[in-house]
Amino acid sequence: MPYPLELLYTKEHEWIRVDEGIGTVGITDYAQKELGDIVFVELPKTSDHVTANEPFGTVESVKAVSEIYSPVTGDVIAVNTKLQNNPELLNTDPHGEAWLVRVRLSDPRETEKLMTAEDYEAFIREVKQR
Amino acid sequence: MKHIMGNPIRHARAHVTRNEDLIFERGSPGKSGVDLPPLDVPAIASSSALGTEFVRSEIEGFPELSELEVIRHFTRLSTWNFGLDTGLYPLGSCTMKYNPRINEVVARLEGLATDHPYAPESLVQGCLKILAETARCLAEITGMDAVSLQPAAGAQGELTGILMIRACLAERGDPRKYILVPDSAHGTNPASVTISGYTVKNIKSNERGCVDLSELKRTMNEEVAGLMLTNPNTLGIFETQIREISDLIHSKGGLLYMDGANMNALVGIARPKEFGVDVMHLNLHKTFTTPHGGGGPGSGPVAVRAFLEPYLPSPALEQRPDGTYHLNYDRPKSVGRVRAFYGNFGMAVRALAYTLANGPEGLRQTTEDAVLNSNYVKSRLKDLYDLPYDAPSMHEVVFSDRRQATRGVRTGDIAKRLIDYGFHPYTTSFPLIVSGALMIEPTESASKQELDAFIEALRSIAREAEEQPETVLKAPYTTRVSRLDEAAAARKPVLRWKP
């Protein structure tokens, strides 16, 4: 699956799409492939505060429970409730329908530290080499 | 049993090759396993004795079977178990070692098996002495000053240990906020930290799979209560910089917790107190040959340096000047009771039997054999399986499925194929810092012949993965059921039978 050019990426394998100060956050295709079949997602509530590089939720697969790190700081304004009953969406459409939360960014400059699709693909190649 | 109707021979042998129905599906109405004697007191309505709200008019789908049918059902199920008594069980990080039968003989001695925890202290001096001797042996093995046998499992030992760290630092004026946990740790470590009211800070491992000292220097400060370390770590690698690590933690006023899951690599060779550990737990069901799995129960004693002794769980077992033992409940600084009575007493009996039967020389030999076995497996498989961290390893070895993954075969597939070869799978996909981990811990219990058979099985599977990956991907073939849909089982679990 190609990595959409309009998204920004983290080393912890999250993506964010920023549109007029609102960031939509999810996990990447690489993350879902490494995790395997995802069976449960734990997300924050609307109006919770999230902090860049700190965990804000967990994804549980048949193999492991992993934390999801927020790419940015801000307040949660929407949560994808569909994932509660359909966690498999994270396996089938990680960059689209399976978005996790929408966040109102406190500091839009934080996104400058994130990777472009091209950087992220290079990063994954490096990770696989290890 | 619709699926075998019309085939009388297969029906006759159904229990050998077929899955077993649930007991709810086997009964027929009116059968009973017991004959009650005639009532010799006046009959009363159950509702008048229990109250109407506790009386059901009927139980839907209640299984009705004869005594023999019930016995056969459960006996068949029991023959499906795979345990140490049936074959090699190389589940990494779990130390599935042989439970010597002498342990069971000792634990079943009448005076030990039938004593009551509420018996007066004067009548249970022997049992108390066993607990005290077990604690003394564990203190000697770890080098620590005091031991509590109360925690009922490893994770509860961790929780007890972290609560003691919190109590100690709180008394010094500030319990602090964070506990450092390496990214190779068992999942129970961050859980214990969180339940104790601390926040986890993850420490990344270096390219050798060990704690990165420069990262530790960056992260360790006066807000950090301590470090939770497994040594050797979950890659089976001994943290050779353990002195620098413990000095660094102590220099900032923190405490060093050691997860004793991997003590099978240290007993009789290295004592954690001597490399700077302040508090640790042991798993008697791993290292000290008490039953592991199948309900155990487990036992996770905690061992501490003298300055942490006041915080150990209450009551503490103490010896009076006249030599008699008593339980001291007057411990104002204790983190309190963590388990009913005095811990899982029967496990202390077994662990002591094992320890005394081996003695210091025997225990050291055990450790050396465990390390030798693991390194034998490592040396004979590393040409076919990728070794992500090729540092000298101890009692377990971690490969990755990197080479097999190029053919679409992952660690879980290899594990399932291993079942066809007659072995219990290794631990899959852990530690998390290795992508597609195969974590193998043979323990000292495996003979060379058994290890060779296991190695040949894994070598054969590596060839299959190369030449005919489909064979591995569809395994197992020899079991009653083949691939189960693990994802569906987790996403939509069916937790009870319904008519």
Can you give a write-up of this model?
The complex is a heterodimer of chains A (130) and B (499). Chain A has helices at residues 29-35, 82-85, 89-92, 117-129, and strands spanning 8-9, 14-19, 22-27, 38-42, 49-50, 55-61, 65-69, 74-79, 101-105. The two termini of chain A are 21 Å apart. The model of chain A has no long low-confidence stretch (mean pLDDT 94). Chain A is globular. Chain A has 130 residues and is an alpha+beta fold. Chain A has four helices and nine strands; from the N terminus they run βββαβββββααβα. Chain A has one domain: Beta Barrel (OB fold (Dihydrolipoamide Acetyltransferase, E2P)), CATH 2.40.50.100. Chain B is α/β, with parallel strands linked by helices. Chain B has three domains: 2-36 and 56-79, no CATH class; 101-356, 3-Layer(aba) Sandwich (Aspartate Aminotransferase, domain 2), CATH 3.40.640.10; 366-489, Alpha-Beta Complex (Aspartate Aminotransferase, domain 1), CATH 3.90.1150.10. Chain B has helices spanning 8-12, 14-17, 23-26, 46-50, 67-79, 101-107, 110-113, 125-142, 154-172, 188-195, 213-219, 242-251, 284-287, 345-381, 402-405, 411-420, 448-467, 469-473, 486-491, and strands spanning 146-148, 178-182, 199-203, 224-230, 255-259, 279-281, 302-304, 316-319, 325-328, 397-400, 427-428, 437-440. Chain B is globular and about 75 Å long. Residues 1-5 of chain B have low confidence and may be disordered. The chains are: A alpha+beta (130), B alpha/beta (499). Chains A and B meet through loops of A and helix 19 of B.
